[in-house]
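new request in #modeling-help
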Amino acid sequence: MSALLHVENLRVSFPTRSGMVEAVRGVSFTLGRERLGIVGESGSGKSQTGRAILGLTPPHAHVTAGRLVFDGIDLLAASEKERRALRGKRIAMVLQDPKFSLNPVMRIGEQIMETLAAHGRGSGAEARRRTLAMLEAVQIRDPERVFNLYPHEVSGGMGQRAMIAMMLVAEPDMLIADEPTSALDVTVQLQVLSILDRLVAERGMGLIFVSHDLRLVSSFCDRVLVMYAGRVVEEIAADRLHQSQHPYTQGLLNCLPKLGQSHHPLPVLDRKPEWAA
Amino acid sequence: MTDALAIKGLAVVFDDFRAVDGVSFSVREGESFGLVGESGSGKSTVLRAVAGLAPIADGTISIGGETISHARSKSFYRRVQMVFQDPYGSLHPRHTIDRALAEPLAVHGIGDAERRILKALDEVGLGKGFRFRYPHQLSGGQRQRVAIARALILEPSILLLDEPTSALDASVQAEVLNLLEDIRRERGLTYVLVSHDLAVVTHMCERLLVMQHGRPVELLTSADLAARRIETAYTRELMVASQGFRREA
């Protein structure tokens, strides 16, 4: 399997009044055409890792890496213009909440067509046709109607499908999904995941799935990176998650209440300083 | 024994939309009762109707055998308190924790604020060092502890919990759920807990009501749910969904 993305010793730090705070501290991994999960709690650096790959780190932060290479392109050496050309066209990102990530004053169809126009992949009738086909591919039953709706007129699940349609219409090679289903109901969550799953498999995309939900990630991804305090503490095949070795991963799994098992009180995480070392 | 809370034929209507329709259940004293469903199922609206935050179109709500009138009295709020989902939104950003906790005491004319505030902070596992901080200086879990302390400071007998842990990380959720269980045991409180998470509800509650589109679907015990003694297709669907993603072969 040829790797699509190489990340080596990625560091993201933010200047604060009390000195530099490192949000990501030396993360390394490679991504092929597979589903990779990045799991961690708030503040573990999982989202900043995804954003750094895409080049969406705030300008005042410092990003360094031994290597940050996407399909032979050195992302750290690339100019802002080159990175902008990659974003949306070859690397796309789905964010958590469609309520905030869609433009509220633009019809859904137009937003998707805009992606195509921005990357010179068609406009006019051709773009419209591709947009409708994409809406259909994310299982929106009446694409013609949804095309003309504004984001506030659709449900969360529908909005997230539209978001996915917008991200996939330019046929990117890699998709970074940052908590793409956390704002959705469980049943809708699974529908959206199965759409994502099918598209990833059919188009041979690489997917980075960032989430705090260990159970969801382990049932969806091929491989999981567990992050704690800006570092990857464990990398494990998703179906072997229950055999994880690291006490943090085990702790995260154990502190969830489980149907049919009663643990009173629930085990809590006993955070060890050496995990962050 | 009278029920701590009894709801009969409750309906909540917003304009033409029936958010809650024909919901009845009762909660025994000291029991923990769960309401489960997806967004829009009306589960939170039921809780808000009890607390007087949603208009009741039909049905009755009684607390300890007394039917409550439309306008809630002060004594009602000494018996029934609510904890909201979002600890970022439910605390006043420019009030210190001390002020947030002192306010309910002042409203109800309860003296001895000093001792009660320290006791409430201690009870939720926050030391007195937190007393003069502002919400933005606290983590999500700490804020939810403050929200719980604020509800407890009036020494209510019924606590309405609206998704108290869904904004929190898994490890922090475990801590807050444990705290809620400890408090219930110590004080013999009655809980009504709303959540979309079946595992959380079965962990915390003895019985639960599954809701969909504002209507009750199934009333069952947590033991039944854990043993998969489920009557309706919808509950089964929720149950399957809660197990995570399954790739169709």
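bot summary: The CA atoms of residues 96 and 173 of chain A lie 20 Å apart.
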